[in-house]
Each structure stands twice: as structure tokens, then as C-alpha cells.
Design goal:
This protein is an alpha/beta fold. It has helices at residues 33-37, 40-46, 81-93, 112-119, 179-195, 205-208, 216-222, 227-238, 255-259, 271-283, 287-295, 322-332, 349-352, 357-369, 434-439, 444-456, 459-463, 524-527; strands at residues 14-17, 50-53, 97-102, 131-132, 153-156, 161-164, 199-202, 243-246, 267-269, 304-308, 315-316, 339-340, 344-345, 373-377, 465-468, 476-483, 505-512, 518-521, 531-537, 550-553, 558-564. Among the domains are: 112-164, Oligo-1,6-glucosidase, Domain 2 (Oligo-1,6-glucosidase, domain 2), CATH 3.90.400; 464-564, Sandwich (Immunoglobulin-like). The protein contains 18 helices and 21 strands. It has an eight-stranded parallel β-barrel with strand order 1-2-3-7-8-9-10-14. The chain has a five-stranded antiparallel sheet with strand order 15-16-17-21-19. Strands 4-6-5 form a three-stranded antiparallel sheet, with no helix packed on it. β8, α9 (255-259) and β9 form a beta-alpha-beta unit. The protein starts with 13 loop residues before the first strand and ends in an 11-residue tail after the last strand. Bound molecules: alpha-D-glucopyranose (GLC). Alpha-D-glucopyranose is lined by residues 63-64, 66, 103, 167, 203-204, 247, 312-313. Residues 16-417 form the Glycosyl hydrolase family 13 catalytic domain. GO terms for molecular function: alpha-amylase activity; cation binding. This is Alpha-amylase.
């Protein structure tokens, strides 16, 4: 039987880090594992329980290291494998798990497999990739980076053939229908699991189960739809508690392909809720987010949504209608240069929200209130800005701002040697940095730390079933999450029956997306019986309301309540 700690990712707060822009310990201008290790206490204090490391492998680094040249190493600019293991160990000491990016849809064109494949048609690596003598007629469709790439097929002179690439031309797609490639992936996963990682963020997950120019009959025989089940089962044999987190911007009816009946991937980024959340923030209307939450299927008990605001890519609004995307552009990306790939916004959260503290709190609070596990991006906790003079998505990947000192305390190197320039101006280190915010009790950093603490005490949100509830004010998102107990520390799993120490508990959160104050009425049936406690608010609203009457909300205000029933005086599990 599973115990309380086994589905750890349901209680997690995940934090995404680029090692090269987090902290440079050796002064060469590039962040490294030693620098990251020195900041584990910072992450611990913030309330982070799991770090997601973006690719750190040896790489020509033409796509933020998503162009991998060696799956078994650490880019020497970031340190050594020994430094990586030191980091893992220190993180574990502070109770922080580590997930790493697994980029196996493609390799770098500099990877020895591709070099061997292109050099010799008879090479055993030839069939690791997807080749054609002529590009298919639809080669100009389906590029992930339209405007930068013009085709998904490129001609390789050395190979004398065309190869398939979903992403950039220097990222040839692996042929996952080839059993030898699957075997390589198994070995890569096994290697890092052996070193102690707690799982993988699965890059470009939808493309791992598509056909890639292989004939339908061949594909069917190789059963691509079983691939995630294969990965999951391998993972479970090697390390029972490891998890897979899929990067998949999919529609609600495709979710099952990823989570199966609980036998495929455990975590799925909630891109669908994410883009509707931004539409709601842009329009001040709750409906888009509420309807999106309603459209998502219930997940199997062991699976989980991973909710986020911004990530290291553009804010992808590709699932919205043209009009709705237009409304987001008007609100968050008025200049054409702030948009990217015809579908997204290439800005950080704080500039998108006009550096407005009330809206930054509102957005974070709302994200933390969504059923699932929260994922934060480094720098958003202090409200870092971006540098739109950098190309494509590079502008949201600038160095972390630790102090108001030279290079924001990121590195002692001369500024021209930094991996990327520091942000300057309104969002530069003089105005936005960790050290100042640590000292200021009212800072965004301290607010988020407190909010995460509250969130960690709400197993109802991470473990329970959540649903939007109807309220009579169009700008208010109301969500109710129900779980068996209010005690995070003794959370029973949905699989094993471990008696809860108290009765069922619910958390109701209210978020007002409008700049005007309002008063909402909840239906008595949505509140039900139980004692009401207020957990988190944007301001002092006085005594906690009964919730069965009127509830006031300030401009961009938010309030979290718990409704607990049962006898909390009883002790211990198993009664
Ligand atoms: C994923 C990553 C993105 C990268 C792409 C190609 O979408 O999030 O940053 O460019 O994969 O690997």
C-alpha cells in the first residue's frame, strides 16, 4: 500500500531554473552548479520543494541547451558531473527534489549520432533520425517556430537526403519508432535516476507520439501510443517515486493520451488553464478561466496538473480564438515586437502586468489556487523584467538579480562577459533584487513566501477535487477544492486507506479580476456546513465572514477560506 509521501508531487512547489543564469560562482560570467548549490537555502526558505533544471547538458547552446550534444554529461561551462551530484545532495539535505529536462524528441545536429547518421547511409545511427529523398508536400506546415523556420524538412549535403525537424533546423528529430532509439532513451533515464533525480520534465511530449513521416503501417506495428506507458513502467521499476512531467499544450480531449488510466505520465503542464487564465486577467472576466476549468477532464488519482504563469518560452496563446488572443495582445503585448511566432507573448510576468503589485499578487494567488501543483519560474518571485532587445525568447532568460551590486550579484565577471546582459532600467537590479526584498517585510518576495506557506498547508488544493463555483459577479473566480482532511502533514493517498485525523475539509478561494471593489454572494449549497477560517487575503477585511452571506473583495482582491467539518480533537491516523 502507498503511504503519505509517495505521491510527493501532489504536495510540491516546483521552481524552474536555468543554471547558466542563476548564479555564477567562478566568475566567468556563466552561472554554474556551484553557484546554484550556494542558493539552495534561498530556495528552501522560499518554500520550493522541487527544482526543475532546464537542460544543462553539453550543447552548442543554440536553443538554451535544448539542442543536446551529449545526454550523459554536464556542459563544462556549468561545472562537472561531480558539481551536479554535490548540488543534488545539498538539495536533498534541505528536502528539495530535483527534476531534469529530458529532451529526446530531437538531438543537436552536433550529436555524434547525427554526425554518424549523415556521414554514412549504412551507419546504424542512420535510422535514429527521419530521412526522405524528397521533402513531403506538407513540409511547410507544422513548424513550431514559424517566422524563424520555413519548413520542417531540411536538406543535408553530407547525408544527401532531407531530414525532419519539428523545431529548429539544427535539431533533427529522433525516430522514436526505432526500438534502438527507445533503448537509448531508457538508458539515459536510467543514468540520471541512478544519480538521484526525482523525475523528468518531458520536453515536446506531443511530438514523441506522432508519426514523423514513417508509414502508417510501420507506426502502427510499433505502437507509438504505448510509449508513455513504456517510459512510466521503466521509471517505476528503477525508482518507484520518480515522476514524469509532460510539456504538452493539448486540448481537453487529448489529455487521456498523456495520463492514461494513471499508468502513463503523472504530471501535465496545464497550458489550457494557463492561456485562459491570461485571457481572464486581460478582460477582467472570470468566464474564460471558469469555462476552461470546467472543460478539463478529471485526472486519475495519481495524476496531477502542473499550473504556472510564465515559463522560459513565449506565453503560448495558440489555443485561444484570434479575437481572444487579440484581447491578450492588447492588454499584455501592445507592441508587435512583444509578440512571437504568431501565437504568443515574449515578456516576463511583471512587465505584462505593468509592474502593478496588486495584479502580481492576484495572478500568483490565482495560480496557487488552481487544483494541481504550482510551478514558479526563477525571478518571478521578485518581479523580474525582461530584455526585448534580445532575440526570440532570450529576453525572459536574463541573469537572476540577487543584489543591487555589480551585475546584480549574479557574477563578478566584467559585464561584457556575462552569458546574457543584466536587465536595466525600471526592472534592473537597483530596483528589483533578492537582498532588498528579503529585508522588506512588505516585498513581493516575502508575500510569495507567505502565500506558498499557506498553500503548503492546503492539501485540499493539491490533493482534492476542485471545481469553479458560480458567483453573481462576472469578475470573480470562485474555486472550491475538497479533500478528506485539512492536515497536509498526514495526507492520506487516494489509493491507500489511511484514516484521516479529522473530517472532510474544503478550501474556497475568491479572486476579483477587476480594478473595482465588489461584493459576492455564494450559494449556501456551495459553502455547506462547517467552521470558516480565513487563510490568505490581499488586505485586512476585518473579521472572517460567514461565507453564506455577502463577501467583500477589494480591487484585484483575493480571499482564501477553509471550511472544515468533523472533530479535529481526535488524534492520529488509523482511528
Ligand atoms: C520546448 C522548450 C523550448 C525549446 C523546444 C525545443 O518547447 O520548452 O524552449 O525550444 O522544446 O527543444
Amino acid at each position: 500500500m502507498l503511504g503519505p509521501g509517495d505521491l510527493w508531487y501532489k504536495s510540491a512547489a516546483i521552481y524552474a531554473i536555468n543554471v547558466d543564469t542563476f548564479r555564477d560562482a567562478d566568475g566567468d560570467g556563466v552561472g554554474d552548479f556551484s553557484g546554484l548549490t550556494s542558493r539552495v537555502d534561498y530556495l528552501h526558505a522560499l518554500g520550493v520543494t522541487c527544482v526543475w533544471l532546464l537542460p544543462f547538458y553539453p550543447s552548442p547552446n543554440r536553443d538554451n541547451r535544448y539542442d543536446v550534444a551529449d545526454y550523459y554529461g554536464v556542459d563544462p561551462r556549468l561545472g562537472t558531473l561531480g558539481d551536479f551530484v554535490d548540488f543534488l545532495r545539498v538539495a536533498r539535505e534541505r528536502g528539495i527534489r530535483v527534476m531534469i529536462d529530458l529532451v529526446v524528441n530531437h538531438t543537436s545536429d552536433q550529436h555524434p549520432w547525427f554526425q554518424a547518421a549523415r556521414a554514412d547511409r549504412a551507419s546504424r545511427y542512420r535510422d535514429y533520425y527521419v530521412w526522405a529523398d524528397e521533402p513531403p508536400p506538407n513540409a511547410r506546415e507544422g513548424m513550431v517556430f514559424p517566422g524563424v523556420e520555413e519548413s520542417t524538412w531540411s536538406y543535408d549535403d553530407v547525408a544527401g537526403a532531407w531530414y525532419f525537424h519539428r523545431f529548429y533546423r539544427f535539431q533533427p528529430d529522433l525516430n522514436l519508432a526505432n526500438p534502438a532509439v527507445r533503448e537509448e532513451i531508457r538508458k539515459i533515464m536510467g543514468f540520471w535516476l541512478e544519480l538521484g533525480v526525482s523525475g523528468f520534465r518531458l520536453d515536446a511530449a506531443p511530438f514523441l507520439i506522432e508519426r514523423k513521416g514513417v508509414s502508417a503501417a510501420v507506426v502502427e506495428a510499433r505502437r507509438p501510443h504505448t510509449f508513455f506507458r513504456y517510459m512510466r513502467s521503466f521509471l517505476s521499476w528503477r525508482r518507484g517515486d520518480a515522476a514524469l512531467l509532460a510539456e504538452a499544450n493539448v486540448l481537453p480531449d487529448e489529455v487521456e493520451d498523456y495520463v492514461g488510466s494513471g499508468d502513463k505520465l503523472q504530471l501535465l503542464f496545464n497550458f489550457y488553464a494557463n492561456q485562459h487564465l491570461f485571457l481572464s486577467l486581460a478582460t477582467g472576466r472570470a468566464a474564460p478561466l471558469v469555462e476552461a476549468l470546467g472543460a478539463l477532464p478529471a485526472l486519475p488519482p495519481s495524476a496531477q496538473w502542473a499550473n504556472f504563469l510564465r515559463n522560459h518560452d513565449e506565453l503560448d496563446l495558440g489555443r485561444l480564438t484570434d479575437d481572444d488572443r487579440g484581447a491578450c495582445y492588447d492588454a499584455f503585448a501592445p507592441d508587435v515586437d512583444m509578440r512571437l511566432y504568431g501565437r504568443g507573448v515574449r515578456r516576463r510576468l511583471a512587465p505584462m502586468l505593468g509592474n502593478d503589485r496588486a495584479r502580481l499578487e492576484l495572478a500568483h494567488s490565482l495560480m496557487l489556487a488552481l487544483p494541481g501543483t504550482p510551478v514558479l519560474r526563477y525571478g518571478d518571485e521578485i518581479g523580474m523584467g525582461d530584455d526585448l532587445s534580445l532575440p526570440e525568447r532570450e529576453g525572459v532568460r536574463t541573469p537572476m538579480q540577487w543584489t543591487r551590486g555589480p551585475n546584480g550579484g549574479f557574477s563578478t565577471a566584467p559585464p561584457e562577459r556575462l552569458v546574457r546582459p543584466m536587465v536595466t532600467g525600471e526592472y534592473g537590479p537597483d530596483a528589483v533584487n533578492v537582498a532588498d526584498q528579503q529585508r522588506d517585510p512588505g516585498s513581493l518576495l516575502n508575500w510569495l513566501q507567505r502565500a506558498l506557506g499557506v498553500r503548503h498547508g492546503c492539501p485540499e488544493i493539491g490533493w482534492g477535487s476542485g471545481r469553479a463555483i458560480a458567483v453573481d459577479v462576472p469578475s470573480v473566480v470562485a474555486i472550491r477544492c475538497d479533500w478528506r482532511t485539512r492536515h497536509a502533514a498526514v495526507v492520506p493517498t487516494p489509493v491507500g486507506e489511511i484514516g484521516a485525523p479529522d473530517g472532510p475539509s474544503a478550501v474556497i478561494t475568491l479572486h476579483n479580476l477587476a480594478p473595482e471593489p465588489c461584493t459576492v454572494c455564494l450559494a449556501a449549497s456551495d459553502v455547506g456546513p462547517g467552521e470558516v477560517t480565513e487563510l490568505l487575503t490581499d488586505r485586512d477585511y476585518g473579521r472572517a465572514p460567514d461565507l453564506r452571506g455577502e463577501v467583500a473583495l477589494g480591487p484585484y482582491g483575493y480571499r482564501w477560506f477553509r471550511i472544515a467539518t468533523g472533530d479535529d480533537r481526535s488524534t492520529g491516523p488509523g482511528r
